[in-house]
Amino acid sequence: MDLRRVRQHWGRGKAGLFAAVAATVVASASTFLVQARGPESSVLAPAASMSVSALPTQGQQVLGQIRQGGPFRYEKDGTVFFNREGLLPREQRGYYREYTVPTPGLNHRGARRIVCGGAQPAVPDACYYTEDHYSSFKRIVQ
Predict the structure, then answer these.
(1) Which of 19, 22, 36, 132 sits between 20 and 30 A of 2, alpha carbons compared?
(2) Which residues are catalytic?
(3) Longest dimension (CA), the chain
């Protein structure tokens, strides 16, 4: 519902205003429900994987640093990844940690990351690679 129609309803008193607000809320909720992901999207498809050798060279280096416990180039490396996108399997908060995969030619962190999960950061249960800043992930397999 656009602003012009809200103003038209406003002129009709409280009932018109209520109808305009209700219509806006319903339209917004419908959009949210259409865009929301179902529970099936929270688990990666088996085809969404890649070998360590398929990682960019910088990713292979970062994976080695993870297994050695560091040192890491960026202050944010090793911090908790919250999986807000819901693309990785659901785990308790604090399970996942993120690490920057440097991109040659950039003077900032860029979009590439490795996210690993497990109780011991240097011995992860699973690691995932994203080259598009958490829009998609591939599980890293040996």
Answers:
(1) 36
(2) 98, 133
(3) 69
Which structure tokens are listed for 90?
């659901």
pLDDT of 45 reads: 53
Instruction: Give, in order, the Cα–Cα distances in Å from 21 to each of 4, 27, 42.
Output: 13, 10, 33
Helix residue ranges per DSSP H, the chain: 3-10, 14-35, 57-68
C-alpha distances out from residue 115 to 97, 128, 142, Å: 6, 5, 16
Confidence at residue 142, expressed as pLDDT on a 0 to 100 scale: 82
Residue 29 zone, left/alpha/beta (φ > 0; ψ -120 to 50; rest): alpha
Tokens of 44: 């990666």
**Per-residue pLDDT tens digits for 90-138:** 999 999 999 999 999 999 999 999 999 999 999 999 999 999 999 999 9
Whether pTM > 0.85 for this model: the answer is no
